[in-house]
Amino acid sequence: MYVRHLSLTDFRNYATAEVALEPGPNLFVGRNGQGKTNLVESLGYLATLSSHRVSTDQALIRAGQDAAIVRARLEHDGRELLVELQLNRSAANRAQVNRAAIKPRELPRYLSTVLFAPEDLALIRGEPSTRRRFVDALLGQRSPRLLGVFSDYERVLKQRNALLKSARASGLKDAKLSTLELWNERLVELGTEIIAERLAIVEALGPFVRDAYQAVAGSEQEPTLELVLSILAERPGDDEEPGVQADAPRASGTRALPSRAELADAFRAALEKVARAERDRGITLVGPHRDDVLFRLNGLPAKGYASHGESWSFALALKLACAELLRAESSTGDPIVILDDVFAELDQGRRGRLADAVKDYEQVLITAAVYDDVPEELTAHTVRIQAGTIVEEFS
Ligand SMILES: Nc1ncnc2c1ncn2[C@@H]1O[C@H](COP(=O)(O)OP(=O)(O)O)[C@@H](O)[C@H]1O
Ligand SMILES: [Mg+2]
């Protein structure tokens, strides 16, 4: 699938913009702070309902305005589709497909993007929450239904925490104890589904990450990834980060993934183990909200061991792997690959290999401050941006 035309109204620093896009590579160039990232962010948002830079919509709406509109004309297999999202400052967002209203949450069914940006280095070096978000975003793109499961889990977690907190203040009386048991069951039910989905996708991603790492780094290093589960931790609830389980818990491919029933049992057992500590601290100490994904390079945890260049290659490989996975499974064609401000950070060898890795995607959007940083094969259609305006276009 590719975007033929993008229209923005009051999105970030764009009052209005009309951008014609081509299949294949599209390069956006301009000095820093002109709106290159804003432009590609709008499409990323349309596809994922989240931004790689902010966690709320407010910053996406142009300062002083009440609403932003992102509209994209898509083409897939010769058929056109018009998708539109209105972001409202103080009301619910609204979405349309071919002018018919849909729930915004349905949008990812129509359009998929994989965006790689310097911020993604945090996948390797940052907190577990960054890695959880990464995995969940991919799951959500693959099956939007899960977005509902994630938000249900968050809601149950919040309510369970509120109950634990009030129990800490006033003691856990019988009525509260039975309410807690009800929340436990909901937590286990939703949490188990999330864990099972994450385990499966982390497993599926493995071979794609290995191939992508070798393709971009041009080296024979062996990247692996595995989910670290707080419900299986030696001392559950001890750590904010479950962290490295010292002697590699499961070499991937050598043992079957645990069944949902096994996971649910482990979850209940872990909750029992931490019951006392949870009441002391007033928070839920085990569950998918405390899990992590461990990335290793040649057996060593990437976080703390990988060099800057290796960390970059790993983060890039993770995103390319997502693109390959979505492409392999999609019924709407390739995801749109977005490379935001990436080439400046790469050496000549990696630039060329990255260009090679993305060149046969249906559409690739690239931003760069310096035109010459971008390999020539990605410059076929170039758009110059200045202060939230498209100033020049050349092919
Ligand atoms: N909601 C907003 N309203 C108005 N301007 C914004 C908004 N959000 C970001 N900007 C402006 O957009 C510019 C950054 O654009 P960006 O796309 O990140 O630049 P770059 O071209 O370097 O990628 C900044 O000048 C910032 O002030
Ligand atoms: Mg930028």
Structure description:
With 395 residues, this protein is an alpha/beta fold. It folds into 2 domains: 2-112 and 333-394, Rossmann fold (3-Layer(aba) Sandwich); 131-303, Glutathione S-transferase Yfyf (Class Pi), Chain A, domain 2 (Up-down Bundle). Helix content is 41%, strand content 23%. It contains 9 helices and 15 strands. It has helices spanning 36-48, 122-125, 128-142, 145-170, 174-217, 260-281, 302-305, 308-329, 348-358, and strands at residues 2-11, 14-20, 24-29, 67-76, 79-88, 94-97, 100-102, 113-116, 223-228, 292-297, 300-301, 336-340, 363-368, 382-386, 389-394. The strands form 3 sheets. The protein has a 6-stranded antiparallel sheet with strand order 2-1-4-5-6-7, with helices on one face. A 6-stranded mixed sheet has the order 8-12-13-3-14-15, with helices on both faces. α5 packs across α6 (260-281). The longest helix is centred in the middle third of the chain and has 44 residues, at 174-217. It is globular and about 70 Å long. The two termini are 21 Å apart. The structure holds adenosine-5'-diphosphate and magnesium ion. Adenosine-5'-diphosphate binds at residues 12-13, 30, 32-38, 59, 61-63, 367.
Structure summary:
This protein is an alpha/beta fold. The chain is 41% helix and 23% strand.
Keywords:
2 domains, 6-stranded antiparallel beta sheet, alpha/beta, binds adenosine-5'-diphosphate, 41% helix, Glutathione S-transferase Yfyf (Class Pi), Chain A, domain 2, 6-stranded mixed beta sheet, Rossmann fold
